[in-house]
Amino acid sequence: MSEQEYTEVPRGLGDVVRLVVRALVYVVLGGLALIAIVTVGGVLGPEVAFDLYTPPVAAWWTVFTAVVVQGVPFLLLGTVVSAAIGALVPERVFSRLLPRNPALAVPVAGAAGAVLPGCECASVPVAGSLMRRGVAPAAALAFLLSAPAINPVVLVATSIAFPGQPLMVVARLVASLATAVVMGWLWARFGREEWLRLPAARTTGSDTSRAGAFAAGLQHDFLHAGGFLVLGSAAAATFNIAVPRTVLDVFTGSAWLSVPLLALLAVVLCVCSEADAFVAASLSGFAPTARLAFMVVGPMVDLKLIALQAGTFGRAFAVRFSSVTWAVALLGSVLVGWWLL
């Protein structure tokens, strides 16, 4: 073992020890905060607690918790992959795998999204890490959109939710991949550097081991993106209890209104891409093309994803990119639905 390899071991162990100590500190502080909240609640008395626990509040809390619980595991998966890419994968790997021409790199990156079994929460930090490693933004954005929409887990779930309807699975694959590639090409052609705040490269110092760089990247990405996941989940829960279901039933009879309605509904419901097919299958009153639009738009544009994009790439990017993505996904769903369904 060389002297450099020998010195990296204790540094890596030291990083692990520091992370453990930091985690213990967070646990202690969180426990004290919880004790304080419980104490205040006990002083205020049960009457205030019962007044606050109304059915709408209970429904809001249920939806909020469901969205967060769905998203956190995949957000953790994404941050682990992102940290691993930043700490372990050399930049020359991406230059060899992706074509130099952005017009060719975009479809390759879009097709590569099929290998990551995660939801939209995982794709944002991974795309940010790819940009930090020198991947063209157009290719990274195509991967961001395709990864949660065409991976094997999503396609299998879609086939289970729509038994005996293989064309629905094919339509979702084609419409989602086409949307991701078109958006990558649109960004390569019309995107401006000032719209996109590229994720800053994390400086870890020349003496930091790979284990330390991985741990630092994981902590940074998870804590940063987790806050925006909570904000998006709160917005989705608010919509769920504020809009009556009777309002949605008005649009089921019109094919022209049902497609954009379900495309908008996918934005605010924030259903995980592994589960949205079952939600779409339950909407039996809507046309197949409308349900296809729900499944294509949801993994690419929803409130928590917009919040994650705003926190990672900037608000100016999130507003423009999400708006155009929604329109392209809606148009692609209509065309593919007319062709296959």
Structure keywords:
16 helices; single chain; about 350 residues; mainly alpha; disordered N terminus
Task: Report on the architecture of this protein.
It contains 16 helices and no strands. It has 341 residues and is mainly alpha-helical. Helix 3 runs parallel beside helix 6, helix 7 runs antiparallel to helix 9 (166-190) and helix 9 crosses helix 14.
Quickly give the structural class: mainly alpha
List unreliable stretches of 5+ residues.
1-11, 44-50
SSE run: HHHHHHHHHHHHHHHH
CA-CA gap between termini: 62 Å
The coarse silhouette is globular
Rg over alpha carbons: 22 Å
Mean pLDDT: 75
Strand content: under 5%
- Helix fraction, binned, reads over 70%
- How many distinct helices? 16
Count the E strands.
0
Q: Please outline the major beta sheet.
A: none
Task: Report a brief summary of the structure.
79% of the residues lie in helices and 0% in strands. The protein has helices spanning 3-44, 46-52, 55-88, 91-97, 102-112, 120-132, 137-150, 152-161, 166-190, 210-242, 245-249, 255-269, 276-282, 288-297, 303-313, 315-340.
SSE diagram, text form:
Blueprint: H1 3-44, H2 46-52, H3 55-88, H4 91-97, H5 102-112, H6 120-132, H7 137-150, H8 152-161, H9 166-190, H10 210-242, H11 245-249, H12 255-269, H13 276-282, H14 288-297, H15 303-313, H16 315-340
Helix pairs in contact: 1-10, 3-6, 3-10, 5-7, 5-9, 6-7, 6-15, 7-9, 8-9, 8-13, 9-14, 9-16, 10-15, 12-14, 13-14, 14-16, 15-16
